[in-house]
Design brief:
This protein is α+β, with helices and mostly antiparallel strands. It has one domain. The protein is about 20% helix and about 25% strand. The strands form 2 sheets. A 3-stranded mixed beta sheet has the order 4-3-5. It has a two-stranded antiparallel ribbon with strand order 1-2. A hairpin with a 4-residue loop joins β1 and β2.
Length: about 100
Amino acid sequence: MPSFRVETPQRAYEAIVERGAIHRLTQCFPKRLSKVFVITTEDVWNLHGAAIAGHASEVLFFPGGESRKRLSEVEALAERMVGAGGATMWPGSSPLLSCAAFR
């Protein structure tokens, strides 16, 4: 699968870049999950959400834009996930969709 390495001051990760990759997203989930949270903007969900909607326990929307990419936004989303019965785990982020999966 084509990918490129993204390096930030905090960490590095591989970003998968391939047409149709969203249809294989669930292959990346751990085998035993109780909840899958999808974190995205409404416009991205409207374009691509149907591909994974059946696998999401809950979809959490946040306003887009660089100015909203702050720890306070992450904290608010984590509180919503915990309130919905999840634990706190935040796997890598994606420009398209970010997923948090809980056992």
